[in-house]
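Hi C.,

You asked whether I'd gotten around to modeling the 218-residue construct. I have! Everything is below, sequence then structure, no commentary in between.
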Amino acid sequence: MTDQPAETIRKPRADAVRNRERVLEAAKAVFSAGGSDASLEAVAKRAGVGIGTLYRHFPTREALFEAVYRREVDQLSELAEQLKDTASPVDALRSWLRSNVELVATKKGMIAALALAVQAPSELYAYSFDRLTKAVGTLLRRAVAAGEIRADISAEDVLRALIGMCHMHDQPGWQSTVLRLLDVFVDGLRVQPGADRKATSPTPKGRAKSAIKRNAKR
């Protein structure tokens, strides 16, 4: 008995691929809104598929959580690539950070509605943190190079500040509060007119040069 040729292996049907994408998009909408109506049945209804179709694609709640979360992270990574060509580096950074709030809202909604353990697989969070850090780093470096954002902050700092703001607020409507705080945060990172850009250098060499200049003026 011979092995079946590789080209005869069946690929997912086009309608099956479409249904999967519709479920993922519906899950994002339903769970980011949260509330008592957030359920697997609500996701299936919004996607226009039966609950059986949903379970065929995602046999467990954890499988759906991971698929939605990875999809959101990948889209945010792609968004950073699109935004880096916009006119204002600061506006690009601000827009990307605001889009992240929706990712956190979706994650929070899924954990609550699906009764998942708060601790998701470490490899999933490692994957997401790596991709998101690289994405925000692209936009941050562009803003620093343009002289619009101070240089003594890292991509990890920005991402952790965002995560902290999102998880400090759990009351209904928390997203609007976080979006307002994000604007304050980004405005605080801006280089003020007349500020010494070298003084904000994150390197020891840069700090040493600034200290020598200050001592020479005394």
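If it helps when you're writing up: Residues 149 and 191 are 5 Å apart (CA to CA).

Thanks,
B.
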